[in-house]
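Form 12-C: Joint structure prediction
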Amino acid sequence: MGQTLLEIANLQTHFKTDRGVIPAVDGVDLTIRKGEIVGIVGESGCGKSVTSLSIMQLLPKPVGSIAGGSIRFKDEDIAKAGESRMRRIRGEEISMIFQEPMTSLNPLLTIGDQIAETLRIHRKISKKDAKAHAVAMLKKVGIPRAEQIVNEYPHRLSGGMRQRVMIAIALCCEPELLIADEPTTALDVTIQAQILDLMKKLNEETGTAILMITHDLGVVAEMCQRVVVMYAGKVVEEGTVEEVFRNPQHPYTKGLIRSIPRMEDDVRRLYSIKGSVPLPGTIKQGCRFAPRCEFAMDRCAAELPELVQSGEEAGHRSRCWLNG
Amino acid sequence: MTQNLLEVNELSTYYPIRKGLMQREVGQVKAVDGVSFAVKEGESFGIVGESGCGKSTTGRSLLRLIEPTAGQVLFQGEDVTKLSREEMRRKRREMQIIFQDPFASLNPRHKVRKILEEPLIVHGIGDAKERKKLVEELIVTVGLNVSQLDRYPHQFSGGQRQRIAIAKALMLKPKLIVADEPVSALDVSIQSQILNLMQDLQESFKLTYVFIAHDLSVVKHFCDRVAVMYLGRIVEIADKHSLYRDPQHPYTQALLSAAPSPEPGAAKERILLQGEVPSPANVPAGCVFNTRCPAATDRCRTERPVLQQTGDDHFVACHLYPAAGQG
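Section 2 - Result
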């Protein structure tokens, strides 16, 4: 087991809205070890993206803010780090890529300039060296004709190529952690396969840990070693991917896994979880999943269960009164 | 033997590429290029492919929401491409469509009651009392309740909005529903609800679906037969069991192998395709897939393969497979 790289403890991220203060992330614990690929999986509004934005301190100010808890990165609580310190960390030690690479690239700068910009902010190198490094990075992420592409603008590239460029920018300073927020959701399956393959290869070569945020259980199964399942701002289950998929403990995880159609199976009807995904902050008491849970008891609506060891493997935990 | 409800022959839909001040036509995007298939009554027919393959344009061309450039669309034996505008408008009573984003297809200023009643008024069905009864029946059929009829679309979740869109499509008791990515925008736990609902409705309303999607496992689950499209053409078409068990076109094989499996440790031989889909404004000569195909030969670069039967209800457009009887 590797050294701990990032340790989130009891993270609370609040959004101030017309409806009052909404705890989008409500007491999340999460650990990532060096070189590990961890997935956060959940549906819209579960707080998975807000968790990642909290790590980077990229929450929309002043609406969103970290209201409690700590985010230990190596030996430092970066939840309390100031803006200038965060600027050193972003790109240098922790990088992030997003679902839509076009909105994260500057349309007015060439690909090369954008990679060089990141390099020159964090490393003292000449323009010429930065450009050479940019070409090398583009080659590393599998972009053909890197010497020409380096002088092109983002709109000239396809979605898959833009995501490769984003990965090149994210990894050019060799960060220890890459946060990937739905990195392949906007891409076609054959291109998704290429990008996932690339991310896995870079993880093996450089040892960069990856926090993969996704709604796609297939992506998690394929990429991650451990998975954290979130529902309505809380972690409801965590464990190794193998264990969570084969022996899910929380009724929500079970339901999710059962409700996806599989190419290998032939079932006439799919299992479905009743009801709809709650808006953040609407359920304030008890287990957040209780209104949709087929096993819910009186206790579930009144008291929030703790995240406790369940299942056979050490470190497999779930938040359910049935598994207490 | 069930009858064909829909027969599509050599359907092509081209978009003009215009340039300059005079908007002169300088070329064509062959979004759909000579597509043929038949859909039996009561069947769910799937069309899969990646973005830009022409699957949505095909769906819209069937209803002439986009005018096809050439070819026939026989609906119950009648070529709908020959109908006048007014005749086509009336024909759409029997041919409906639902879209990926139900928010974009529901008028945000109208209450659900009005949204559902509108098609009845347009087609002159029933009096006010009868229409009210029909609307109230259908909202319950799709799993919502009568009290929700007096709300606006924004007051519903994505899954509920898709239920409303389905109810709207069903108001006129159509025979055919073209469903264009109906569950792609929905959360995983909501997807299965909508798919189950659509299956229930198929039985109770005797519906035929043309189901367009990019998600291969959803299509496998939902459809009886499946066509795979690439760059405006159908490259393979087969019974779903045959297609998923024995994919024959190199593109179908790559597509199936690329889909991530929710089975951890599932040993999968992945075919990673090189490069990207070429622009549909400038399609490769011969087989459209030849630029990315691991098995392409000189013949593939010059001669366009046609669909030929390789098995029971299995057709593939690829030079690797000799036509039956030529061996």
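Section 3 - Comments
Residues 189-206 of chain A form the longest helix (18 residues). The interface with chain B takes residues 43-44, 144, 158, 160-161, 188-194, 196-197, 215-222, 241-242, 245-246, 255-257, 259-264, 267, 269-274, 276-277 of chain A (CB under 8 Å).
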